[in-house]
Write a structure and sequence with these properties.
The chain is mainly alpha-helical. Helices cover about 70% and strands about 0% of the residues. α2 packs across α3, α5 packs across α7 and α6 crosses α7.
Length: about 160
């Protein structure tokens, strides 16, 4: 066994759960998060010896892979089911994450990187390959969407 493979295995064992949590926040789905982590780690296995800062490198690769996935997917999800006429909001602890999962992927990625990972606008822009202005506009749109939920509209509080 080569020394760098041991380092890689140690990193995966030590940081695997944190990477899964980061993947979950990016994708909004535990299965997609596991797929994201696995795919990124498979791609990085051969070049592991050349990586200086593994944590930052893996997280950047995960964010970029996630962006690549949602760029390839269709923007709308076709379904045979007609949406319900009303929306109920029971204020459970997971409600915020459910609302965040409902955001477009780019807006969700910006919010996760800004508030969960505590990155600056410039760091987010560099990570996602977009301008700082795009980061700010995506964050603004996402927050506006989260502020005006259907339950608030139903009660007429807007």
């Amino acid at each position: 066994m080569r020394p760098q493979s041991v380092e890689f295995e140690d990193f995966v064992h030590a940081r695997g759960q944190a990477l899964l949590r980061f993947g979950y926040v990016l994708t909004g789905n535990a299965d997609d998060a596991a797929d994201l982590v696995q795919e990124v780690l498979l791609k990085l296995g051969d070049r592991w010896s050349r990586i200086d800062n593994p944590e930052a490198y893996v997280r950047t690769a995960m964010a970029r892979q996630h962006i690549s996935w949602w760029r390839k997917r269709r923007r709308e999800q076709l379904t045979d089911l007609v949406p319900e006429s009303s929306y109920s909001h029971d204020h459970e602890p997971d409600d915020l994450w459910a609302e965040v999962r409902g955001l477009p992927p780019k807006q969700r990625a910006v919010l996760v990187l800004r508030y969960y990972e505590d990155l600056s606008d410039q760091e987010i822009a560099d990570l996602l390959g977009i301008s700082r202005g795009t980061v700010r506009s995506q964050a603004s749109r996402a927050l506006a969407t989260l502020r005006v939920t259907p339950s608030v509209l139903e009660r007429g509080q807007v």
